[in-house]
Specification:
CATH topology of the largest domain: TIM Barrel
Distance between the termini: 46 Å
Number of strands: 16
Bound molecules: 3-methyl-2-oxobutanoic acid, zinc ion
Oligomer: single chain
Largest sheet: 8 strands, parallel, barrel
Helix content: 40-55%
Number of helices: 16
Strand content: 15-25%
Shape: globular
Radius of gyration: 25 Å
Length: about 500
């Protein structure tokens, strides 16, 4: 292992990941994700963009002040206010990093920044110098580097390194690059930028063409030493390079790639579940590494091969990425400690209050359903983590009837403080529509439904149904969840989750 190159894993789930529509996180949630990233073993946590909002600033500062074991980074544009604010936020970290960026491509120069090449170089150098005046660990990103003219990119990179950038990150901001091209860009920088050996080359690939991981691997092969990525690949538009995929590519193909990372791969599935719970962004079933089907073998020939020799059809073991070997069953006699223990091994470290609430729901579920599987526990915990802790509205009871030929009828009673309000409606185009209308009539919060999904948490008719919603309110997207063995009830819970997130200003 000694001759393997150590690749730095720069996680930007809390910054670029959080830029996914509807994926915003509050402070306790960000702290929980930061803790999970540390346990996972990332080298750098990009904790946010401190100038963007007081909430972002506060989160970066809290993470910088309280977490040890990884560099904590704050993002800044190349201007004094951004950089000063980023430093204020990260200065309490053991290893603070400031990440400054400025677009360099012709399209961005001409239409967005209206700056000449000379002005760009001047601004980039001034930004890096200001950041360096605060801390040694400064990263510079020429935004949209993959579409920047080669000569100019070399010039900017050389100037940023001369100004003190310890890391130069090459972003494919719009996911336009292809693997061979990305490799050539890195190779070109190594061959043409005279001071390139004074910096670590990083890449930050977006996934618009589904190539983010492939592009990042090509960059590594060409000499990059840092990968920017996110859990579950979340991020702007189609997202970023998925951390779990690039790490497992390096790990599984260690015969081919002479690299290693500091990631504890057994924490990949638990961290993926946590981020999915907190952001409300479900992981697609067939997602590589962490999807529910990633290790499911359906075809008879495959199952037969697996029974004879696992490696016939399996290149990684599920337990290597943190999937439990067995789906342990809990039931109505299982206690709180057994539940906490199972939740922990699934990646959720619950606080006393969270455990109390999940245990209550677990007991209700155990009354309805004999055997409770890991999938049920994940659904209950994810619901709990996604809910706002001080919800304004809660569900007291609901009734729903529907039959062919007559309008649906929904009656909902909600509680706010001491007050209970009941609303009955026979309007609407089906039970779900009626549930939206009744909730809106009580709470006054109008939601436009953008996406509605139901899936079962486990196998069987009696499985928990998980409803995920994407709704728009005042031009903002919110994600919400509800979980119940009754899908109408799960829907009402998801609608209330959305309302509570909105009225709670989340
Ligand atoms: O995609 C991008 O270019 C970015 C930069 C800020 C690195 O996120
Ligand atoms: Zn990005």
């Amino acid at each position: 292992m000694a001759d393997r190159k150590q690749i730095r894993i720069f996680d930007t789930t809390l910054r670029d990941g959080e830029q996914s529509p509807g994926a915003s996180m509050n402070l306790p949630e960000k702290l929980e994700v930061a803790q999970a990233l540390l346990t996972l073993g990332v080298d750098i946590i990009e904790a946010g963009f401190p100038i963007a909002s007081p909430g972002d600033f506060e989160a970066v500062r809290e993470i910088a002040n309280n977490f040890r074991g990884a560099a904590i980074c704050g993002l800044a544009r190349c201007n004094d206010r951004d950089i000063d604010r980023a430093w204020e936020a990260v200065k309490g970290a053991q290893d603070p990093r400031i990440h400054v960026f400025l677009a360099t491509s012709a399209i961005h120069r001409e239409f967005k920044l209206k700056m000449t090449r000379e002005e760009i170089i001047g601004r980039a150098v001034a930004g890096v110098q200001r950041a360096v005046s605060y801390c040694d660990d400064v990263e510079f990103s020429p935004e949209d580097a993959a579409r920047t003219e080669a000569d100019f990119l070399c010039e900017v990179v050389e100037a940023a390194i001369a100004a003190g950038a310890a890391t130069v990150n090459i972003p494919d901001t719009v996911g336009y690059a292809t693997p061979a091209q990305m490799g050539k860009v890195i190779e070109m920088l190594i061959n043409r930028v005279p001071n390139i050996d004074q910096t670590v080359i990083s890449v930050h690939c977006h996934n618009d063409l589904g190539l983010a991981v492939a592009n990042s691997l090509a960059a590594l092969e060409a000499g990059a030493g840092q990968i920017e990525c996110t859990i579950n690949g979340i991020g702007e538009r189609a997202g970023n390079c998925a951390l779990e995929e690039i790490v497992m590519a390096i790990h599984t193909r260690s015969d081919y790639y002479p690299y290693e990372t500091g990631i504890n791969t057994k924490r990949l599935a638990p961290t993926s579940r946590l981020v999915s719970a907190i952001t409300g962004m479900q992981v697609q079933r067939n997602k590589a590494i962490v999807g529910r089907n990633a290790f499911a073998h359906e075809a008879g020939i495959h199952q037969d091969g697996m029974l004879k020799e696992r490696t016939t059809y399996e290149i990684m073991r599920p337990e290597d990425v943190g999937f439990a070997k067995t789906d342990l069953v809990l039931g109505k006699h299982s206690g709180r400690a057994a539940l906490a223990d199972r939740a922990k091994s699934l990646g959720f470290q619950l606080t006393g209050e969270q455990l109390r609430s999940v245990f209550e729901r677990f007991k209700e579920l155990a009354d309805r359903k004999k055997e409770i599987y890991d999938g049920d526990i994940v659904a209950l915990v994810q619901q709990q983590l996604h809910n706002t802790p001080d919800e304004e509205w809660s569900l007291v009871r609901f009734e729903a009837t529907s039959s062919s030929g007559s309008p649906p009828r929904v009656k909902i009673t909600l509680r706010r403080g001491e007050e209970e309000i009941t609303q009955e409606t026979s309007e609407g185009d089906g039970l779900i529509d009626a549930a939206f209308l009744a909730t809106e009539q009580i709470t006054g919060v109008k939601l436009i439904c953008k996406d509605y999904r139901v899936r079962s948490a486990t196998l069987g008719h009696d499985a928990l149904g998980e409803v995920t919603l994407e709704v728009e309110h005042n031009g903002q997207i919110h994600r919400a969840r509800g979980v119940s063995t009754d899908t109408v009830e799960a829907t009402v819970m998801a609608i209330l989750d959305a309302v509570n997130r909105i009225v709670g200003g989340k």
